[in-house]
Design a protein that fits this description.
This protein has 356 residues and is α+β, with helices and mostly antiparallel strands. The chain has helices at 42-61, 67-94, 96-100, 104-128, 133-137, 140-164, 167-178, 182-196, 200-217, 227-245, 269-281, 320-333, and strands spanning 21-22, 179-180, 225-226, 249-254, 263-264, 288-297, 300-308, 338-344, 347-355.
Amino acid sequence: MTPVTPANPDDPTSTNLSGFGALTTPERPPRPEPTLFDVCHVGVVLRATLFVHAALATGVLFVAPTMRGWALQFALGAGVAMPAVLAWLISACALKAPLSRMSAAGQASVSAVLGAACGCAGWALAMQAGPGDLERIGPFAPTAAGAALALVMHQWLRMRALARTPADTTAQLAELQSRIRPHFLFNTLNSALALVRLDPQRAEHVLEDLAELFRVALTETGGSVTLDEEVELAKRYLAIEQIRFGSRLAVTWDLDPDAGSARMPPLLLQPLVENAVRHGIEPADDGGTIRVRTRARGDRAVISIANSVTGTASRPGQGIALRNVQDRLRLMHDVNAQFESRRDGDAFRVQIVVPL
């Protein structure tokens, strides 16, 4: 068999799918408007609860004569605010689908009505525990406060939704997915040519893997894919690299089928396995091992990618791929996703946790 020339570790144009020269991408359809009214996230629930109580604590400062009086009145107000804000969040989450089809003005109106109803209901619920000062306050103040705070929350959610995909972020993510480095294409085609006469079927598989990488790299930036789809793409990428590195590259897969349905941004795992090849396998004379493991733990999927590091063989990078992956996870899952990268002895490990 004609040997396939391995990548030169010192060549700055060595394999890097996420750092390729730009190709002209097909014209994309207009991006749909973001859903403005979406409270079905743990991060939103926490921030909404903290915001309402912070507003309550600040308002009580203007009427409480002493610190003790402030604490008592804040506790009384929290008894109304907590059930009210939770009822508003649950109602808004349950109505997410119909609300997402409404205009921003319609969403604001429904938000205010829900806030007013929940504020009044919270006051009525607290009255059952004992009227006291609540009877003197009456239902008007909780109802008006509920509507006002709901409108503030709606405006915050609207700004948050619009900020999730600003122009510069969209451009960065599109750049990641639509660039193919010419040297990678050159090496892959050379590998296929070397195999055409000696092993046509294997050459065909290499070209199929390359075509799939191109297809995913040129697709729309938005949306999400399953973990199973990302693993399949990573396998295709490593299959191409296996042709080039041969026995220098060992790959082990430990996959949990129950974790395969987790959703994530497209083209997320490929830059990580690419990093493992470029910084762990390529510089090492004897190559190394890449281990990919997935696990379902309760309502979370845990993905771990580790590559061996021999002494000082690993070539330091700028961490662009790692930061990109972290930013994309944050944009999609907010605080529901976790990202961690670290060196453990003779291995460099990246771990991702996403909701199932």
